[in-house]
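go over both lines:
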Amino acid sequence: MEEVRVIPLKDVSQYKEVVEITMEAWGLSDYYETVPPHLLKAAADNGGVVLAAYRGSEMAGFVFGFLGMEEGRLYHYSHQLAVRTKYRGRGVALKLKLAQRDYVLKQGLDLIMWTYDPHMGRNARFNFAKLGVIARRFYENYYGILTDELNRGMPTDRFKVEWWIKSARVLNRIRGLTKAPSYDEVKDAAREVVKTRLNNAGIRSVARVNLRAEDELLLVEVPGDLEDLKSKSLRAAIDWKLRLRPVFKHYLSRGYVVVEFITLREGGERRNFYLLWRTPLTRVLRDERLWK
């Protein structure tokens, strides 16, 4: 593939192309849930950033964010990232996030945050395994009802992830020096707090959850492929979200940090798990780990 270059956008006509990519990526039929070009420009001119990845003269994707503040700390909030369908799986998203990191570092900041659906394995793998994010916050139905193809009919439950862009953890991940552990590497050290079952139709569901665990490491199972599950049974997909809500709320409120996303191949089935660790944030950011 021709080399992809990432540049900041300034021209209003370029922002209109961002809207077009937004509509393609989220399967929108109108502009109602897009960020308008005038707001993209206003954000970019006032401390935010809109970066686009180009292959030749074609915009392949973009990332958009703005300044946020929490408890007196300035950070960058990354609101949207999207890549055209034909360029997915080619490293464009990673190039955009690394360019965003460079831009934010030049602003003198050390933290980027964003939300995503914790049940979407593809996004979880990218966020944790490639970038080295962590999560300490979970929100029920964060955006309310959305009408795009990705979210239609589903509650918009979200993790708010933290990307500590100067930390040893992040540097090791983006340089490829560390990787997510395998299921076998953590199964003896961590307690599984979500038990699931597979029915005759091949649909896995939550059988029971444990909200009484005190172990230092926990494993929380999430759907192996949410999009595939939705196509088979929207009700089953929604049930996963509803059953996992108390799990995430309970353990994150008790000092656990989501530190890894792990995929297990079992026969022809993919199973996904989050690894939670009850420990101070400083240990996580130093890239310490309890597993081998």
About this structure: The chain has two domains: 4-174, 183-285. The first strand starts at residue 4 and ends at 8. The CA atoms of residues 202 and 267 lie 12 Å apart.
